[in-house]
Write a structure and sequence with these properties.
The chain is α/β, with parallel strands linked by helices. A seven-stranded parallel β-sheet has the order 4-3-2-1-5-6-7, with helices on both faces. The protein is built from ten helices and seven strands. It is globular.
Length: about 220
């Protein structure tokens, strides 16, 4: 039976790849995609999620979330991901009719309460939305199977010598999630760096299919 998941994201080229997998993996039942400020601002991360939904002709709902960290100043990674956050491939303009009006935190709580199975949360951006969910609706913990997040590092950082970007963007939110008592799996920057694609592998993607062609062009920009 498929595992229900919610992806909380700030796409982002790397997040675009993760969403591409989640939308098509036979083991996952992707219940929704929620967006957060991070790699670029919330309007752009939301637009990018909508572009991916449209690219894959998906029915998965998109919900816009937090536009800024809980306390910290906004930082972004547009120098890495490009001005749009997904530079490298020419996506059509997003269809904003596909954007659900319910805020990400409200939508997550409703989905958690009504799903028959405990849901796995997969935040792959700053943890702002997850912290707001746990703070606003403490009962949400009863419906969460686990949180598997991309963030932190057991080695060097990528925004400072010791800090990883997602945690650095909203450390107060990270503290709330770390202290939640929920089962947590941290996929740190050191793990992500160990799975970096080679130039030859990126080039091979181009000829696979339309998805491979899209990811090839995103990765070429990323590596550039």
């Amino acid at each position: 039976m498929k595992q229900p998941i919610i992806i909380d994201t700030d796409p982002g080229i790397d997040d675009a790849a993760a969403i591409s997998i989640a939308l098509n993996h036979p083991a996952f039942d992707l219940r929704m995609i929620t967006t957060v400020n991070g790699n670029v601002g919330i309007e752009k991360t939301t637009a990018n999620a909508l572009k991916l939904k449209q690219f894959f002709s998906s029915n998965v709902p998109i919900h816009r979330g937090a536009s800024q960290p809980l306390l910290s100043n906004i930082v972004d990674a547009s120098t890495v991901h490009g001005e749009s956050g997904m530079n490298g491939y020419d996506f059509p303009e997003p269809n904003y009719n596909d954007l659900t009006s319910v805020h990400a935190v409200e939508a997550m709580y409703k989905e958690l309460k009504t799903n028959e199975k405990p849901v796995t949360l997969i935040p792959i951006g700053p943890l702002t939305n997850i912290a707001l969910l746990l703070s606003t609706y403490p009962k949400a913990k009863d419906y969460i199977k686990e949180i598997v997040f991309m963030g932190g590092s057991a080695g060097r950082g990528n925004i400072t010598p010791s800090a990883e970007f997602n945690i650095y963007c909203d450390p107060e939110a990270a503290q709330i999630v770390f202290n939640s008592g929920l089962p947590l799996t941290m996929v740190g920057l050191d793990v992500a760096r160990s799975s970096t694609l080679s130039h030859s592998t990126v080039n091979e993607l181009q000829a696979l299919n339309q998805t491979g062609y899209m990811l090839h062009h995103l990765f070429k920009h990323y590596k550039g």
